[in-house]
Amino acid sequence: MKPYSRILITGAAGRLGTELRKGLGHLAEHIRLSDRVAVEDLQPNEEMVVCELGDYKAVMDLTKDVDAIVHFGGAPLETDFETILDSNIRGSYHIYEGARQNGARRVIYSSSVHAIGYHEMTAQIDADAPVRPDSLYGVSKNFVESLGRLYWDKFGIESLCLRIFSSFPEPADRRMLWSWLSFADCVQYVERGLSAPRVGYTIGHGLSDNRLKPVDDSKAGHIGFVPRDTAEGFRDAVEARTAPADPKSPSVQFIGGWFCELGHPDDEAKK
């Protein structure tokens, strides 16, 4: 018998949602997928719901009869505030309210390094470090992390807020030689979050076993994630094709990288 009857995955058509579909199917009898666009290659145990997370009624229907929610939906990068507000802030509130009203007891949320992006590379922070968002996108991640804290303390809904750093097929630049989270390690972390006997409220930091570790993830040790991949095998190729960045630039000094050099997105939209 599988651990779950039905798991909901939001953002299922995205880069990481596609990988999660492959890696989590063995945990549930049924997988409900959601995104703004349809997934076409549905597997026998999958169902697809096209849904805007900012639509309260639609999300209440989306979250019916699910035991756990893997919430990877929302705007994936810095963008205008109205989009952040609707997709990330309002949409995530709807997800947690759907969990509360419909009886889902665990949420795995894709938070981000950008919730803590203005910590210096040398700070060696852990899950108890104060939030230091580097963008409106990062602020939205702070909001949802706080939402998860509230819904655990007040309503008993468990949350793993997984701060993902850089999850791509392989490291694309020198920063990713330390910030990379392989697809397999990302799926493993989420799987552990769904399988752990107790999650409570946990902040995890999604990094593979890379040489430089600016964040201590030991306070999420009870989840049981042990990275299996490393960026080291890509180092020579990445360093050969990319020049070192200015060590005094914010993108090098802070763990948020190039997000720390962005202006206000609403100013950019007016140009």
Automatic annotation (TrEMBL):
Keyword hit for DNA damage:
no
Question: Which Pfam families does the entry mention?
Answer: Epimerase
User: In terms of domain of life, where is this protein from?
Assistant: Bacteria
Q: Domain NAD-dependent epimerase/dehydratase: where?
A: 7-168
Query: Keyword annotations for this protein?
Result: Carbohydrate metabolism, NADP
Does the record's keyword annotation contain Cytoplasm? no
Q: Which PANTHER family match?
A: ADP-L-GLYCERO-D-MANNO-HEPTOSE-6-EPIMERASE (PTHR43103:SF3), NUCLEOSIDE-DIPHOSPHATE-SUGAR EPIMERASE (PTHR43103)
Q: What is this protein called?
A: Uronate dehydrogenase
Species name: Pontivivens marinum
